[in-house]
Amino acid sequence: MIDILYFAWVRERIGLPKERLETSASTVAELVEELRSKEERYEAAFADVSALRVAVDQELTEFDAPLEGVREVAFFPPMTGG
Amino acid sequence: MTVLVQEEPFEIGVVVENFTNAQAGMGAVVTFTGIVRDLAGGLQHMLIEHYPAMTQPALEAIEAKAVERWNLGGSLVIHRFGKLAPGEQIMMVATAAPHRNDAFAAAEYLMDYLKSRAPFWKKEITADGADWVATKDEDEKALGRWAD
Known about the structure:
The complex is a heterodimer of chains A (about 80) and B (about 150). In chain A, about 30% of the residues lie in helices and about 25% in strands. Chain A is α+β, with helices and mostly antiparallel strands. Chain A has a single domain (about 1-75), classed as Roll (Ubiquitin-like (UB roll)), CATH 3.10.20. In chain A, helix 1 packs antiparallel against helix 3 (about 40-45). Chain A is globular and about 30 Å long. By secondary structure, chain B is of the alpha+beta class. Helix content of chain B is about 35%, strand content about 35%. In chain B, strands 1-4-6-2 form a four-stranded mixed beta sheet, with helices on both faces. A four-stranded antiparallel beta sheet of chain B has the order 5-3-7-8. In chain B, helix 2 (about 50-70) runs antiparallel to helix 3 (about 100-115) and helix 3 packs across helix 4 (about 135-145).
């Protein structure tokens, strides 16, 4: 099981901040494909992954990052701190 | 090295005084404070969302890089989240160093990185609706100047 978190407009488009999923995806990109095929709202959120950032176990990473042993994946738009 | 992620406001004067008093033998203290601006007109408030489990470690990692890179006696980052009105303080950084060049450079580095590498997202609420603040190309470009 893996926890998936969504922030900002990704959270709004999908309609929930967090969910727990059983997945066979071996990379973040595969997980994205799996989510996109779930429902229209996921497709809307993940339509353009170049507009998204991903963190795996609270560290920024790339979409080709492996998921083995990972507990938490978070998807969000580019950050706007400061 | 201190990182504070908090919802409540902070008193700039008190924070700067306490930070400065704690720096023994440092010749320079630089501080920067970010304020909520009403750019387009009609901003009611700003909502800042963050990723609680990641925010503190991400800011600490950015601060650790600054400490590695410059000769600093101390550093401080405060970043707020939640609902903020125009004119309120969003965040501040403070750096202390033996000489001003290190203090200025480290403060700018901290600012550049926490703008686009710390997990905060700003949403502006106006009478017309609400919009997520988009990143600016210049913010991403600003990171380029720190490339080794």
